[in-house]
Amino acid sequence: MTTGSGGPGKDSRLRSLLGSLRRFQDAGAKVAGTTTALLKGGAVIGNTISNEVSALSAKSHGKLKDYAVPRAYVPTKTQLDKLDSQLAKADEKLSLLLQGSDYYQPAINTLRNVVGPSSDARRERAHSISSFLGASPKEFFKYLATFNGGTVIGHLASENLQGVIIPMAEQLATMAPAIPEPVAIITGLLAASGRYALRVLELRGMERAGRYAEVRDQVEQRVLDQEQFAADWGHKFADAVEISGKARASFDKKYGREARVSPEGVALIKSMTADGAAPLEVFSAQSVSDRELIGKVGEKLQKGYLMSVEDASKVRLDLVADHGGDMPMIKRALHSREIPVEWVEKYGIDEYATVMKNDAQTSAAADAFNSFFEKVDSLKDKNSAAKPGMGP
Amino acid sequence: MNTGTDKSLSQVERVGLLTSAIELIEQTSGLINLAGTDNPSTSAVPPEVVVELDSLIGRFSLLCTHLLGGIPLEKGTLDINAERAYMQDAWRFLGDVKSYLRDAA
Description:
By secondary structure, chain A is mainly α. In chain A, 76% of the residues lie in helices and 0% in strands.
């Protein structure tokens, strides 16, 4: 809501905004041509994309409440393995379908050149691309993931699947009547980029989690610099004090600097565990404040990652001891579901839930793929029969 | 206009255009969140602006899909220069919305 000054100033700003809107609308009306024609037939696509991009963008800024609700997550490793395998098949089918096509090879080459076939290649490629695009690899990944994730995962993991792919295929058939199997091609393209998007999202989350402590130190240094500036020059620049105060509050809110398990508590965990004490016994020996903090980790492991009571009871202590009681880091990683990659093996935490929201959606995507693959196979067989020269 | 089509785009240009369009989408999405457009009665911007922002995302998402090869064109070509110019118009519009939100806060 607007909370600022009202009156003539507000009216003037509103008039100016509406003037800007009209100018932009006029500019849009002048851009005649194919994109606009495509857009008219693609309202459903635009709408879905819009919703998904908004959701992903909100998630990247930590504003999407769904992503903070533990019950929204269930173990998804098996489902995602299944999905990933299906996506790999889609990629393979896409390659077959693309053989001999003048239309798709340049596009798919671009996609593959951008994202790369392997983790190392992706990183390398991102660095080289960013060097001439002026964006950091992280940002570039984010854009790709936002777009690919929004348009592909969102589409495939929703009931709107047919509402998206079929209209796109119909448009393709209208615009390019000579293209064979439009449904298969659209499905394949979306599936291939979806597969990349999954990997990119996973990679991005893990990279960020791995750099948490480093980033926190950098941010805190900037806050300290601002506080120093405010102390030195606050008498001259009134804003400096206010700005540094906001920066500190923002830092504390985000990184929760104060909330740590005490060094004594960490030492107690280590010594009692080494002596063979049971996890519950170690937990009970903690101070009230430390017990409260450690207890929250256990709750998150149980509710957010569906870990058993017994496992969570042990893992919460291991996490706290191994990370020197750094609760902000532990909580942030668990809450955001962007957990460092080594936690998966060491603590048995399911990292796959960092990408997909819930089982139902993943199942829907996997089922939808199966259904489309049958169509793809059928279309491909027809195409092979019609064009004996094509094929693997 | 005959001053450039998508078929004459190099890969570098294609990726550059794609990245710009995606950034535009993300910025627009951020503004929509900022403006709180879920509820028109409390939204910080007029409804017609919300509609235009939504439509902007849809349009440039489609351009992205096209640039990634999702919707190839057989009849006619995409006027890339016109798209670039329109993108500039979009950035200006977003800048104006952002200024409005900042002033209103």
